[in-house]
Amino acid sequence: MTERAEEFPGSTGFPDGTVFPGKTEAEIASQPGCWLRAAELAGDAAEKLPSRGERVAVVGCGTSWFMAQSYAAAREAAGQGETDAFAASEMPAGRRYDRVLALSRSGTTTEILDLLGRLSGSVRTVAITADPATPVATAADSVIGLEFADEESVVQTRFATTELALLLAHLGEDIAPMAAAADQVLAADLPAELLGARQFTFLGTGWTYGLASESALKLREAAGLWTEAYPAMEYRHGPMAVTGPGSVVWLLGPTPDSLPAEVAAAGGMAWQPPVARQTPLAELVRVHRVAAAIARSRGLDPDRPRNLTRSVILLPR
User: Fold this and answer.
1) Within its chain, how far is the Cα of 283 from the centroid?
2) Fewest CB within 10 angstroms: 3, 28, 54, 257, which?
3) What is the predicted pLDDT for the residue at 46?
4) Which residues contact 4 (CB under 8 A, 6 or more apart)?
């Protein structure tokens, strides 16, 4: 497997023959292959990743924070040990951890580097990044590089899902069915009811709540849409008030069976194809495709969304 989106086999367009209009779409389409490569890497990286029984904190910013949330919930559900997830700027001081895992695509994000500097010498730190030749390499005790999943787009897609695939594989998850399901998502047409929606609410449970938050972020970043994300059981506690004609409630992972009917009664549409329940990471690929397609239809460039940069680097105070 090669290391750049445009070099992946078939990367000139989606399986239906649609030509990629930009880097974002090419990077979206390369995800299944990246996940399989990450699964192969998981064994070699095992000594750097948390061991069973360790008390672990996972930190990130933006998308990486949501991936941290998903991994933390999955690790605890797998019985691997207590795992907390924090935005890097909000990790509380003084808590004891055996290992801190920092997720940073760019390796240059100010909040990540500041936190690693404060933790230096007090706890073992590991960074997962797309570019090990960046400041994170010296700030962390050890680094796992996913250069093959790096991106040119500002909006993260394949790097985030690839780092999560690596972490899930380390927990013992079989990534092959997820990759196969993602291939199916890439080959399918995008439903008109998703492309024409005015508002999205994403719901998840357990490790898929992080995916729900990430899904909402993708549509905000790429297409500037009104989106929200909640744990599935919280939908009835206020969020359903915004549901109405043109609303899509996107269900990721197992959710209460009664929710689709409640969404319909509120005037919205519940979206949960089988892949969303069975392989939610693959359903995130559909979210990526919808976000990019809506952005293009609105005259926006998901490769370079407004007001955003690939890395947030703050000036010293």
Assistant:
1) 11
2) 257
3) 96
4) none
Q: Hey, what are 281's tokens?
A: 């990471």
What is the per-residue pLDDT for 129?
A: 96
Q: Which amino acid is at 18?
A: T
The count of residues in the chain is 317
Which tokens sit at 50?
């948390």
Q: Say what the pLDDT of residue 316 is.
A: 67
CA dist 228 and 160 (Å) reads: 19
- So what's the pLDDT on residue 312? 46
> What is the value of pTM for the model shown?
0.91
According to the model, what pLDDT value does residue 4 have? 36
What pLDDT is stored for residue 304 in this prediction? 81
Write down the pLDDT at residue 3. 37
CB contact set of 68 (below 8 Å; sequence gap of 6+)? 58, 59, 60, 85, 86, 101, 103, 210
Q: Could you give the 3-state DSSP secondary structure of residue 15? A: coil
Query: CB–CB of 81/170 below 8 Å?
Result: no
Distance, in Å, from the CA atom of 103 to the CA atom of 4, rounded to the nearest integer, reads 20
Distance CA 169, CA 128 (A): 15
Residue 83 phi/psi, 5° resolution?
-140, 125
CA–CA dist 169, 277 (Å, integer): 19
At 62 the pLDDT is 93
The pLDDT score that the predictor gives to residue 264 is 95
Q: Is residue 251 a contact partner of residue 276, using CB atoms and an 8 Å limit?
A: yes
Return residue ranges of the chain for CATH 3.40.50.10490.
Answer: 17-170, 188-297
Beta strands in the chain (DSSP E): 56-60, 83-87, 99-103, 124-129, 142-145, 199-204, 226-231, 247-252, 269-271
Query: Which class does domain 188-297 fall in?
Result: alpha beta
Where the chain has pLDDT below 50, the residues are 1-11, 312
pLDDT at 87: 97
Asked whether the beta carbons of 186 and 282 are under 8 A apart, the reply is no
What is the fold, at CATH topology level, of the domain defined by 17-170?
Rossmann fold (3.40.50)
Amino acid letter for position 305: P
CB 242 within 8 A of CB 217: no
